[in-house]
Amino acid sequence: EQIIGRKAKSREHVHFTITKCKNNFVYDAIKAFASASKQHNEDMKKNA
Predict the structure, then answer these.
(1) Residue-level pLDDT at 48
(2) Dihedral, CA atoms, 33, 36, 41, 42, nearest 10 degrees?
(3) Is 11 left (phi over 0), alpha (psi -120 to 50) or beta?
(4) What are phi and psi of 29, to 5 degrees?
(5) What are 1-48's pLDDT values in tens digits?
(6) What does the alpha-carbon distance between residue 39 and residue 36 come to, in Å, rounded to a whole number?
(7) What pLDDT is attached to residue 38?
(8) pLDDT score of 1
(9) Do the Cβ atoms of 3 and 15 come closer than 8 Å?
(10) By the 8 A CB rule, do 36 and 28 touch?
(11) CA 2 distance to own-chain centroid
(12) What are phi and psi of 19, to 5 degrees?
């Protein structure tokens, strides 16, 4: 069953694969967020 074009069901879990392709904004945004989150966690440990 596809999730595209419908609302998610309550407590529904979706697994998807993000592939890297030319000018892929979603891939770049997730990559940047993951990098920032790692740095943020390291900074929080230093300041604790």
Answers:
(1) 66
(2) 150
(3) left
(4) -65, -45
(5) 677 788 888 898 888 777 777 777 877 887 888 788 878 888 878 876
(6) 5
(7) 79
(8) 66
(9) no
(10) no
(11) 20
(12) -105, 145
The residue type of 27 is Y
Write phi, then psi, for 4 (nearest 5 degrees): -65, 130
Residue type at position 2: Q
The CA-atom distances, in angstroms, between 9 and each of 24, 28, 36, 42, 48 are 28, 28, 31, 36, 40
Helix (H, G, I), strand (E, B) or coil at 7: coil
Q: Which two tokens stand for residue 48?
A: 């604790």
Question: Distance (Å, rounded) from C-alpha 41 to C-alpha 27?
Answer: 21
Residue 6 has what DSSP assignment?
Answer: S
